[in-house]
Hints:
By secondary structure, the protein is of the alpha+beta class. It has helices spanning about 5-30, 35, 55-60, 140-145, and strands spanning about 40-45, 45-55, 75-85, 85-90, 95-105, 105-115, 125, 130-140, 155. A seven-stranded mixed β-sheet has the order 6-5-8-3-2-1-9. The protein has a two-stranded antiparallel ribbon with strand order 4-7. β1 (about 40-45) and β2 (about 45-55) form a beta hairpin.
Amino acid sequence: MALNKKQYFFFAGITFILFLFLVGFYFYLLTTSFKRIEPATVSINKHIIKVDLATNPESQYKGLSNRQFLCPDCGMLFIFPQKDIREFVMRDMNFPLDILFIADNKILNIAEKLKPENSADLTIYESITPADMVLELNSGYSVKNNIKVGDQIVVNYNK
């Protein structure tokens, strides 16, 4: 079945629009998702933790949501430009976490063994005082490695 001139231009136009959309989406991914989470390490009591950094609103909102697992000595470190009361939820999580609230490289409080939640009515976990960093770890990591409030942390990454 041969296409008439009108059908040919219609399909050519649709193909061109699809091409522009895909190119735009590709550049969107390059400028947001792939460049926003950077590898780093955190040291607490001589324990080295490999962390992904969440340093902008997009990566901080997403956090560890929808990931299937986190390696045993891995985590996510959220770095904020200023101290403030920080609130976190277990939105779309697939595994439990410990959340450590940090200010001036010192652990302020720890929310331990937090269960995943998928509902619209999420439990809010917050820092007891203003924090400039938050570290998410596998559930039980804090107890297993004797990490407690007041411990110092050292963050190593390329700024």
